[in-house]
Design goal:
- This protein is of the alpha/beta class.
- The protein is 30% helix and 19% strand.
- The chain is built from 8 helices and 13 strands.
- Helix 1 crosses helix 8 and helix 6 packs across helix 7.
- The radius of gyration is 19 Å and the shape is globular.
C-alpha cells in the first residue's frame, strides 16, 4: 500500500507527525510519501490530507476526486474551530464552507483531538508523540511552573495561579496583563522544546486545547500537566485523566506512541481500500 500525505510546507508539527507515521507504517508494509505541493504525479492507494485550509491539501483533494483515489481529510483543530478571548469559537463562515465541502467529498474525516467531535462528525485518532525526542533529561529543574499555550482569557488562567508561587509563561494568544509572579519567556522553536520542557516539573495549559500536541510532548518529558481536561473525554483513555496521572510519560506511551497510532491508521486505511 502506498499513501500520500499532504500538508503545508510551513506546518512543522504536521511534518513531524507524518515522519512518525512513515517510520512506523513502513514496518507494517505501508509506504508513506510526504508532499507539500498537492501534485499527484504517481499512483497512490490513498491520499491523506492534513488541515483543510491550505492550497496543497485543497489541490490534492480535487485531484484525488478526479482520479478516483480515496481521500482522507485530517482536521488538526483550527480548521474546525478557532481560539479567542471567549475560548473555542467557530471559524470564519467562508472557511467553514470550504472545510464542510472537503469533508463531504472526502471518504473519511479524522480528528486530532476529541473536542473536535463536538463540532463535526469524524473519527478521533490520537496524535503520535516522538518519544525519542521528548523524554526526561538530566537537566536542573526550576522551582517555577510553566504556563504554555494559547492563553486567550485572564478569566480562565488567573484562578489557577497561586500568589505564593512563580510562573514562566510562553503564550501565543492575546496579550494580557499578568500578576507580578508571572514572567514572559520568548517563543521557542520546536527543536528547542525538549530542553525547555525538561527545565520544569509542572505545566499549565493550553487551557482551551486540553490534549494538544505540546501538552503531550511535555508529558512525555515527565511533566505533570493541567489543562482542565473534560471528564467526558476520559472515555478515549481508559477513563484515565491526564490532569491526574502519576506517571505522565507512561500515559503518552500507552495512548500516543507512534506504534499505537500507526496500528489505528492501518485499520483506517484497510477499511478504505477493502
Amino acid at each position: 500500500m502506498k499513501v500520500l500525505h499532504v500538508c503545508s510546507e510551513k506546518a512543522v508539527p504536521m511534518h513531524n507527525i507524518i515522519d512518525l507515521y512513515g517510520k512506523e507504517l513502513s514496518s507494517l508494509g505501508i509506504e508513506v510519501v510526504k508532499d507539500t505541493t498537492g501534485s499527484i504525479d504517481q499512483d497512490y492507494d490513498i491520499i491523506h490530507g492534513h488541515y483543510a485550509l491550505t492550497r496543497p491539501v485543497l489541490k490534492a483533494f480535487f485531484k484525488a476526486r478526479a482520479k478516483r483515489i480515496p481521500f482522507i481529510i485530517h482536521h488538526h483543530g483550527s480548521d474546525i474551530r478557532r481560539i479567542d478571548d471567549r475560548g473555542a469559537v467557530p471559524i470564519l463562515p467562508h472557511h467553514r464552507a470550504i472545510c464542510s465541502a472537503v469533508r463531504r467529498g472526502a471518504d473519511m474525516a479524522l480528528l486530532s483531538t476529541p473536542d473536535l467531535l463536538e463540532w463535526v462528525n469524524g473519527f478521533y485518532i490520537p496524535n503520535p508523540v516522538d518519544l525519542d525526542r521528548f523524554k526526561p533529561m538530566n537537566i536542573e529543574k526550576t522551582h517555577r511552573t510553566l504556563l504554555f499555550g494559547r492563553f486567550a482569557s485572564r478569566e480562565l488562567l488567573l484562578p489557577l495561579l497561586d500568589k505564593d508561587k512563580e510562573y514562566d509563561m510562553l503564550n501565543w494568544g492575546v496579550d494580557m496583563k499578568l500578576p507580578k509572579n508571572v514572567r514572559k519567556i520568548p517563543f521557542q522553536p520546536n527543536e528547542r522544546l525538549p530542553d525547555l520542557f525538561n527545565r520544569y516539573e509542572k505545566m499549565i495549559g493550553p487551557l482551551t486545547d486540553p490534549v494538544s500536541l505540546g501538552r503531550l510532548e511535555a508529558m512525555a518529558c515527565g511533566l505533570k500537566t493541567y489543562t482542565d481536561f473534560p471528564k467526558k473525554y476520559t472515555v478515549f483513555y481508559g477513563f484515565e485523566d491526564p490532569d491526574e496521572v502519576d506517571d505522565p510519560r507512561r500515559f503518552v506511551q500507552k495512548y500516543h506512541s507512534p506504534k499505537a497510532v500507526a496500528d489505528i491508521l492501518v485499520s483506517v486505511y484497510k477499511e478504505l481500500i477493502r
